[in-house]
Amino acid sequence: MNDTYLLNLTISKTAAVVEWIKQRIDSQIYKPYQRVPSIRKLATILDVSSFTITQAYEQLVATNVLTAKPNSGYYVLPQITQHRNTEVLAKAPMVDTSWLVQQMFSDVPNHRAPGSGELPVEWIKNDRMQWVVRQVNQDIDSFIYNYGEIQGYLPLLEQLVQYLDLLGMHTGTDNIITTTGVSQAILTVTQLLLNVGDTVIVDNPGWYWTSSTLKQQGYQVVSVERDHQGPNLEQMRQVLEEYRPKLYITNSVLHNPTSYNLHPARAHQVLNLMHEYNAYIFEDDLYAAFLPDEKPLRYANIDQFKRVFYATGFSKSMASGWRVGMLVSPDKFINQILKLKTLSNMISPEFGERVVHRLWTQGEYRRQLKKVHQKLYIAHQDMRDSLSKIGITYPEHTNPGIFAWIDTGVDSGKLALEAYKEGWLVAPGQLFNPSAQPSTHLRLNAATTSHNFLKWLDIYLNQVNDY
């Protein structure tokens, strides 16, 4: 046999045939609109079964490499070449929410990304993940062909009820739905409570995605300053009085970007204001898994889901790829919430919910979290020492979550651009301000902020301060 007909033996036969065909298309042996060998002929040429060739051709049709013509055969489709605009690429980026989100989904390695919003994969990788996926896959015929329950996979909802009960928040499965992450939970609640033009309160600083998405949906976003005890009460009352907002969106535990918690007295005062002005709270509890053996107060602890919508998920602590979130609703809204879910995506994928449930109830997940707690504690201690050496104060009330909110003393937007030129991804303070006002703060990820970055930061700050 001619060596040009040899297949790649390091991959499956089907994949090897796909690769073989693509190579010949790339080298113009098979040109656009030209017929490729029939299934039987190619099976003979490559010494594989007709079934293997059929599978390969079906993959190539599905990916628009080939097209199938009845009673005629398979033909090469012309390939569209994407040309990148080098003039646009050469321009300096504008540091805004869109830019940062794009960078978060880029291939910037962890050790070059002190502004990342996630933990390194090796920190949260669960050795039982593949085993659990195989276990769920064994039962796949029992559920995958049905729509499933609109509220979500019942054992997962029951597990959340037990978890919340241990934290002093009491509800039932009837008041919970699953969502594709906390972000969808936010969109669901805003769609429930708000009309275009309505006002939403957010924290300043606060999660950049929230403000940007709310504005895109046509809502007016007004921020209230947030410190280590919670939102500024005077500003909160002024905003409630002037704008009559219906919703306040916040993190109570390990607030993003500061890693502050909520002071009990402040929580009671905020809830009193919500009652007085007939407003509701959306409590995003995505980061709670990173607090070791502690039970900090949440708004839902006090309110017990009368004026508080509560959401949590697993994208930070288990795996970003499992877009599984859970939303707890006040009783009077749950039917409307279910209707909104039915009219949008109807259900959340049950496969992921089953995997998350099994992982959540496995001892391995809890053991993995304990390791993460230890690593975060050590990382924060190291960051505290390293920052002091370059003249930056580690914030006093920071809890050992993923983030620290540091004051550099210089415009962090300009700093971010210079860092970008040097191959660093950082998160400047202006991104966490709904009005995108210049800021001297940076959000640092304790797990990905390296000594090399802090050395770069020290050099940069000295250069700026020397001018």
Write structural notes for this entry.
With 467 residues, the protein is α/β, with parallel strands linked by helices. Helices cover 43% and strands 12% of the residues. It contains 18 helices and twelve strands. The chain has helices spanning 13-26, 39-46, 50-62, 86-90, 97-104, 121-124, 129-138, 154-166, 182-193, 208-216, 233-243, 264-276, 299-303, 334-343, 350-360, 363-389, 412-421, 451-466; strands spanning 66-69, 73-76, 176-179, 199-204, 220-225, 247-250, 280-284, 308-313, 325-328, 403-407, 427-428, 441-445. The strands form three sheets. A seven-stranded mixed sheet has the order 3-9-8-7-6-4-5, sandwiched between helices. A three-stranded antiparallel sheet has the order 10-12-11. Strands 1-2 form a two-stranded antiparallel sheet. Helix 7 (129-138) crosses helix 15 (350-360) and helix 9 packs across helix 14. The longest helix has 27 residues, at 363-389. Mean pLDDT is 89; it is low at 86-90.
Report strand order across the widest sheet. 3-9-8-7-6-4-5
- Kindly report how far apart the N and C termini lie: 72 Å
Outline type: globular
The oligomeric status of these chains comes to: single chain
The percent range for strand residues is 5-15%
Q: Number of DSSP strands?
A: 12
Helix content: 40-55%
Please write the string of helix (H) and strand (E) elements: HHHEEHHHHHEHEHEHEHEHEEHHHEHEEH
The radius of gyration computed from the alpha-carbon positions, rounded to a whole number of angstroms, is: 26 Å
User: Which structural class is indicated by helix and strand composition?
Assistant: alpha/beta
Low-confidence stretches: 86-90
Mean pLDDT level: 89
Q: What characterizes the major β-sheet?
A: 7 strands, mixed
Counting H and I runs of at least 4 residues, what is the number of helices? 18
